[in-house]
């Protein structure tokens, strides 16, 4: 019973993209480990940019400093 937790920033990931992630992860676990997709759990958490940090900064601030 695999459990996969995907965390992404909340920047407009569509329902269709989430469906692709869930199917893709389930298919990968089936292909690589022989796991049954019917017992594979995939959870997608969307995290606000101010709750995600990189390099000691909130993601939006990090991006401003490292863009271009």
Automatic annotation (TrEMBL):
<comment type="similarity">
    <text>Belongs to the 4-oxalocrotonate tautomerase family.</text>
</comment>
<protein>
    <recommendedName>
        <fullName>Tautomerase</fullName>
        <ecNumber>5.3.2.-</ecNumber>
    </recommendedName>
</protein>
<keyword id="KW-0413">Isomerase</keyword>
<dbReference type="GO" id="GO:0016853">
    <property type="term" value="F:isomerase activity"/>
</dbReference>
<feature type="domain" description="4-oxalocrotonate tautomerase-like">
    <location>
        <begin position="2"/>
        <end position="57"/>
    </location>
</feature>
<dbReference type="Pfam" id="PF01361">
    <property type="entry name" value="Tautomerase"/>
</dbReference>
<feature type="active site" description="Proton acceptor; via imino nitrogen">
    <location>
        <position position="2"/>
    </location>
</feature>
<dbReference type="InterPro" id="IPR018191">
    <property type="entry name" value="4-OT"/>
</dbReference>
<dbReference type="InterPro" id="IPR004370">
    <property type="entry name" value="4-OT-like_dom"/>
</dbReference>
<dbReference type="InterPro" id="IPR014347">
    <property type="entry name" value="Tautomerase/MIF_sf"/>
</dbReference>
């Amino acid at each position: 019973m695999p459990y996969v937790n995907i965390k992404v920033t909340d920047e407009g990931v569509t329902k269709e993209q989430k469906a692709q992630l869930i199917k893709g992860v389930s298919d990968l676990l089936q292909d690589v480990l022989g796991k049954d997709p019917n017992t594979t759990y995939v959870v997608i958490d969307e995290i606000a940019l101010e709750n995600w940090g990189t390099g000691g900064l909130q993601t939006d601030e990090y991006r401003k400093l490292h863009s271009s």
